[in-house]
Amino acid sequence: MDWLTEILKAALLTVVVFTYLAVVTAMIGVYLERKISGWIQARLGPKHVGPQGLLQTVADTVKLLQKEHITPRQADVLIFNAAPIMVAVAGLLDWVVIPFGRIGERVLVVRDLNIGVLYFAAMASLTVIGILAGGWSSNNKYALLGGLRSASQMVSYEIPLALGILWVAMIAGTLSTVGIVQAQAQQGGWFLFKLPQLDYAGAPFGILAALTFLTAATAEVNRVPFDLPEAESELVAGYFAEYTGMRFALFQLGEYAEAFAMAALAAIMFLGGWLEPNLPAWLWITLGLAAVLVVVLLLITGASRDLLIRPILILAVLGAALCVVMFFGVQAGRSPVLPSPVWFLTKMFALVFFLIWMRWTYPRLRLDQLLNLSWKVLLPVGLLNLLITGFLITVVRAP
Amino acid sequence: MGELAAFIILACVTLIPAVVVVTSGNIVRSALSLIPTFLGVTGLYILLHAEFVAGIQILIYAGAITVLILFVIMLTAGGTGTRIRQVNEQVPLGAMAAVWLGFLILLVIFRTRWPYTATPAPQYNVASIGTAFLTDYVLIFEVTSLVLLVSLIGAIIVARREE
Amino acid sequence: MPKVIVDWLYVAVFAFVGTIMAALPLGIVWLLAPRADLPQKTLTYESGVIPFGQAWAQFNVRYYLFALIFVVFDVEVIYLYPWAVVFRQLGAFAFFEMVIFLLILLVGLAYAWRKGALEWT
User: Fold this and answer.
1) 8-state DSSP, A106
2) Which of A70-74, A200-204, A340-344 has the highest mean pLDDT?
3) Residue A5 CB coordination number (10 Å)
4) What is the pLDDT of residues A64-99, one digit of tens each?
5) Closest Cα in chain C to B83
6) What separation in angstroms does the CA of A355 have from each of A13, A32, A259, A377, C112?
7) Domain count of the fold of chain A
8) pTM of the model
9) C7 is a domain residue
């Protein structure tokens, strides 16, 4: 009965991953989003529930659990209830192929599918249906318009997204997410900066591919500057205008799960996933000293008393500690110095920070600009990048 | 044993929503019921170890064709709120055709000597599909792009006329 | 069991158990949350006025055109996946085969561009 044990193991893992999504991506994600948004806008963000407002999202969840579910009179009740579940489950399924790290010979991944990144793209495409179904079933004009906009935006950006994924698959020669990380380990560098056969000369192509992917990923998860489907100032809240309480929370969970999954996939494909940055010891200590210098400057000038400067101080202290640990680790000849999930999570959260940062930097695009960017810029650029990189590594620098 | 159980479950996942597709009075529900059907077929591909085809099935059918169908439905005059009948006076004729087709298929199934070939099924992994495309079937591969081009141009012409 | 089957068994279990877990909070809400049926409350939101007509109305043909172009390019991208995995073993010849494939499709993109099918007017 080995299949029965596999099913039980899978069910257990589902519970673990779902809890991870609810706690890390939804609760911590929303908290970080609000805190960082506050910081960028020179305000404090949530502050009152728990230390530094840490329990704010927990309180929010408890509140949402007690909220009444209001179903619009003319809604299609069955689809109205199924749509948020579908979005949440699609977000959950993305995480099946995301490797978190490697302990010894064991890779921490639910399943290393042979078609890993293709599977990821397929699951991301399922979200569109949930959003369209939610928008339609509400029987609300704003919701339907938001759903249609969202769907046309997401399908438009699915092609550049796939081109970014394909670029990496082409370089690594595999579709498996674990295989992609191992290909980077083998050549000793991230695909962002270093390509096989081209070495560091491949950096422009890697950066271009990463930008294509990240732009498309941002649009795919409907985040600013591509948040037209939810534009609160014109469409109220877009496709979930009629959703209340926990059903709304499920949409949010799905969106955050997917946004984090996109960040995780970008970290895996371009930033080496769980691999430790392979820097010489002197570089680590230089970086560490620079961070210490920032800390000292902030403390001497007294700027650290300013609540808005304090996050910089905390980040500098953490960075300095990391660099010092890495310095002594590399000196002692340990490799890897830190457990691999630490690096994966660091890279993922750095990219999530980037997404939140972008939100407060760029204004929302108009619909025609949005579609132009996808079809007339990202699609040709992605294709050309694929072809030129392919040309260079097969014809010019043939192995 | 496990394989048979999986097949029966997947067949139910495929067929029950398929019945909803052709009987539901609401056209959007019909379209959305296609998704479990497509996913069930994905499972059947997996039972055949055709992983790449299964991925395509989700990406193209569940993720793209369904969106296209939903968009087309939302374009229909009069909107999507109206209930429609999916059957008309030609039901007996259709039923006869369906029974005849079912009979033919059953006949073929029972007349074939299974297993059909003695050689094991080829590996349907991505690499072997890619190799086949780029070596033995390269002409078909290039013609596919022409077919796609024609369909793209045709789609634009048709949609422009409708405007 | 073969790896493919186990892999996708996990995916299936994830989908099934995930659906249950996602539906669970909805059940909790059904038990916990108050319910008060007021006729005004179940009206859809339309900026404060009573909604007029049906929201399920006819929609714009432009959405449809983009969906069509998308399906064509999505199918094209599918062909790129097997190529991307093997072309380094097959070398320059395979690369140029793909260039021809893509050039034919770029003609399609150029056509759509010229005809204004990518324009949101």
Assistant:
1) E
2) A340-344
3) 9
4) 888 888 787 777 888 888 899 999 999 999 999 999
5) C56
6) 28, 11, 9, 20, 32
7) 1
8) 0.90
9) yes
Residue B76 has pLDDT above 80, yes or no: no
Q: Which of B28, B51, B63 sits opposite A115 (nearest CB)?
A: B51
**Closest CB to B58 among A76, A122, A133:** A122
Residue B163 has pLDDT above 60, yes or no: no
Q: What gap in Å lies between CA A66 and CA B116, rounded to an integer?
A: 60
Instruction: Give residue C27's domain range.
Output: 3-42
What domains appear along chain B, each with residue ranges and CATH number? 2-84+121-159 (1.20.120.1200)
List of chain B residues whose C-beta atoms are within 8 Å of the C-beta of residue A151: 67, 70-71
Interface test with B, best of A120, A161, A175 (most B CBs within 10 A): A175
Q: Does A175 touch chain B (CB under 8 A)?
A: yes
Report yes or no on C52 lying in a domain: no
- Count how many domains chain C has: 2
Domain that holds residue A221: 2-276+360-395
Q: How close is the nearest chain B Cα to the Cα of C38, in Å?
A: 24
Question: Which of A256, A276, A265, A223 lies closest to A351, judged by CA?
Answer: A265
Q: Identify whether A168 is part of a domain.
A: yes
A317 falls within a domain: no
Å between A188 CA and nearest CA of chain B:
25
DSSP state at residue B117: -
**C73 plus C104 within the same structural domain:** yes
B63 and A132 within 8 Å at the Cβ level: the answer is no
Cα A240 to Cα A131, A135, A182, distances in angstroms:
8, 7, 40
Chains with 3+ CB–CB pairs under 8 A to C are A, B
Asked if C24 and C66 sit in the same domain, the reply is no
